[in-house]
Amino acid sequence: MPGINADIPRWQYPPTSDKEFDYAKLETLDLSQITGSEYENVPAEVVQKIGDAFARDGFIYATNHGLSSEQIHRQFSIAQHAFDGVSEADKARYAAKILEEGDFTGYKPRGHWKLRGVRDQIEHFSLGGQSYTPERREKIFPPALAPLVDEIEEFTEYNHDHIYRKILTVLSLVLKLPPNALWDLASNKDERFDLFRYALYHPPSPDEDVKTDGVRLQGHTDFNAVSLLYSQPIVSLQVLMPDNVWRYVRHVPDALVINLGDAMHFISGGYLKQTIHRVVSPPDASQVPYRRMGVFYFAQFNRSTRLTPLAASPVAASTGTSFFDNGRKSPTAWEWECSRVKAYGQDGSKKTIDGGHEEEEMIGGEKVVHYN
């Protein structure tokens, strides 16, 4: 991992809440237990425990990932600089083509999404798998971030080549496939489109919070294969647990919060769960005024990977579940990502269900549910 290459303001973590809330009880994956030159060795009890957790909850914690507290803190400092150290003019100049191309690469401004007529207060800066090539750097990174590009790239590569790869080994074994089976679907550098993101959640006005019942990011599934979230102190993330109750995710210093997305759900025949989650107003009033900073890695399969249940997996086959008209119209990972990016948060053609608390819409021939 890189050292510090540029002098930028240090991020000050918000105070941690000392109150108890209805927290989700999530399993923890000790990544140091996955060993071997190709991360092919995983204890059978780990495969069983994590497989059950991902099939039941869809969310886990991960520890012992090989990154120090200071390396993680540095990324939150860079996230802060990506928003506070870049002018609004440059954010507009390097804006993502979200509606035009279904691509989050670049800056997403506040107000792009809507919930109950209220525009969001979230901005983020996202980088795709091909953002670091010499010809792409100047088109994607504003000048204020130029001294940090190598450092950001190295951190991104560590997430992909070590953390993501280890998780894919575990999931391959869960699906009763060879250890490298899923990695083979994600390791083509020419087809990489994983998304590394810095996000900043600004506190909305009290009136806006009332209109959305405190929901700041609508309940959704992720679109990708595996999502990595670096834990931060503000209690705000909720997951919809198997008993249909929203529960908070507890902050675990230096840990990762990991969940699966649509792509993994589809290729596992629905066995592995892509859990609904959302961001809400902090239940601890002392945390409400603070901005919530986020560091994410949304790991993907190769662009051309078809999202159809893996025929070689007896686990995927045993579910008897099919998607996209029995696979005849299965999109690639890239096609599904683009279609969901374009549609998300745009108040499109949705059917209200469950008394107005849930909405569904058809995307690419598959039903997608949004939870308010």
UniProtKB/TrEMBL annotation:
Cell inner membrane in keyword set:
no
Q: Residue limits of the Fe2OG dioxygenase domain?
A: 192-301
Q: Which UniProt keywords apply?
A: Iron, Metal-binding, Oxidoreductase
The UniProt record lists the keyword Nucleus: no
Looking up InterPro entries in the UniProt record yields:
DIOX_N (IPR026992), IPNS-like_FE2OG_OXY (IPR044861), IPNS-like_sf (IPR027443), Iron_ascorbate_oxido_reductase (IPR050231), Oxoglu/Fe-dep_dioxygenase_dom (IPR005123)
Task: Kindly give the Gene3D superfamilies that the UniProt entry links to this protein.
Answer: B-lactam Antibiotic, Isopenicillin N Synthase, Chain
Molecular function (GO) terms for this protein are:
metal ion binding; oxidoreductase activity
The record's annotation in Pfam families points to:
2OG-FeII_Oxy (PF03171), DIOX_N (PF14226)
Q: Member of which family?
A: Belongs to the iron/ascorbate-dependent oxidoreductase family.
Give the protein name, as stated in the record.
UPF0676 protein
